[in-house]
Amino acid sequence: MGGGILLRTAVVPELAFLLAIPLAGAGVVALLPKGRQAWVRGTTLTASLLTMGAAVWVALGFDPSESGLQFYGRLSGNERMGSDFVLGVDGLSLPLVLLAVLLNGLAVLASAKVVEHRKGYAAAMLCLESAVLGVFLAQDWSVFYIFWELTLLPVFFLINHWGGEHRGRAALNFMLYTMGGSVFMLVGLLYAFDVSGTHSFSMVELAVGLRETSPETQFLILMGFLIGFGVKMPIFPLHGWQPLAYVEAPTPVTMLLSGILSKMGFYGLLRAAVMLPEAMVAVQGFLATVALINIIYGGILAWRQSDLKVMLAYSSFSHTGVILLGIAAMNSAGLTGAVVQMVAHGLVAAILFLLLGLLAERGRSREVGHYGGLVGRTPRFAFFVTLAFLGAVGVPGTAGFVAELHTLIGAFQRWGWAALLLSVGMLIGAAYSWRTIGRLFTGPPLPGMGVIPDLERGELVPVVVLAGGVVGLGFFPMPLLSLIETSVGHLTALLGGLPG
């Protein structure tokens, strides 16, 4: 993760295959004849499964005891610009790679009802997967930035072509916010390149060069990165695009927006922390304040909503504050909680948007007051929605509990009793979660609700997988904790050794 760290190079370019498989799948889909929906779906699923297989292969060959990059590979690029195509993976990026391929595969499974122009939809989903993986695997900031920007196009088209009634405005807001943030990130990146003296965009080399710069210089660079990353997370007050985009995007796309694309911003901030440690320590209090605003303000906004998808959008905004608070703690427990919360929130957000999206399609309404007494009619919905909300609240036995417990411990170690403000956000989250469960599933069935079918067998596959992840990581968190331990320890040593 930083200069002087052992880099383990792979003989077989697994990471290149990981990026190439979805792109190849998108190319094949584009060449298929029109009207062959089964072929398109089969090709998309095959590409997604092959990408999952490649990611699992990388995970099986990964040594969690090493803090350095593994499966490292470099392809010479533009020497005059100091840019090379460099890929690598460590304990911070591998969990997000696995989460990305899992959520994309499940989103493809959940896309059966998106039939209009299926070729374009399928190709965009696969291109998005490749771009997201590129962000998590890139070890050169110029490559990182290119993949970061490439995620914008497929998301824009997916929302603009297959979204809801206000899809045009949602897609435009998403593009303008993201591009605006990217401008600040690019300015910060170019300034870092200029002052580092390394003539390289390599993450390792830039980290070495920038550690010799003044705290003021590091601060200016970090502000550019923080604005760019903050839009994607999103953090207050850069979240204006989020509610409309989450509501108007097709349900499978919202699964990806909330489940994995938001994690790109937090991952980028962790990479920037390696490069700009003094600046990160300087803004520690600011990050903690923004995190608490996210948690409490987002929770209050979620409580006030009657629209299910808008409520989930603000709930997601609130829960991402837990990630930022863990990062701001800059100690082992906090950073561990942040990374685990990335995975936990990715699973919980995906299953909630999937389930409530399916319910809204059946009931033809997103208003929570439109439903009631569903536990007798749709017991599968009732069970999995309740389980998902329990995971969102962070009850023991779910991945959210592991994440929030680590974050709370890390925050308490850093700020003492002031960290209990996190509990306020948790209580607000529990309040709107239990209220929603009560309104949807208890009481008498409402007369205008109509007949609402329960989950079908095909729909159960992604639901069961996501629910299994939420519960499995809750009861057996050690594989994930062991995977990230060494990388988190290295980052903690880097940040913890500086005066706060």
Keywords:
500 residues, 21 helices, disordered N terminus, globular
Topology at a glance:
Layout: H1 14-31, H2 37-60, E1 70-78, E2 83-89, H3 94-109, H4 118-137, H5 141-150, H6 152-162, H7 167-196, H8 203-210, H9 215-232, H10 242-248, H11 251-275, H12 277-282, H13 284-303, H14 308-329, H15 332-363, H16 374-377, H17 379-393, H18 399-415, H19 421-441, H20 457-475, H21 478-496
Condensed summary:
The chain is mainly α and 500 residues long. The chain is built from 21 helices and 2 strands.
- The helical percent reads over 70%
What's the total count of β strands?
2
- What structural category do the secondary elements indicate? mainly alpha
Radius of gyration: 22 Å
| DSSP summary: helix tally | 21
Spell the H/E element sequence: HHEEHHHHHHHHHHHHHHHHHHH
Distance between the termini: 22 Å
Characterize the overall form.
globular
- Strand order, sheet with most strands: 1-2
Mean pLDDT: 89
Percent in strands: under 5%
User: Main sheet, how many strands, which sense, barrel?
Assistant: 2 strands, antiparallel
Low-confidence stretches: 1-12
Can you describe this structure?
- The chain is mainly α and 500 residues long.
- The chain contains 21 helices and two strands.
- β1 and β2 (83-89) form a beta hairpin.
- α7 packs antiparallel against α9 (215-232).
- The chain is globular, with a radius of gyration of 22 Å.
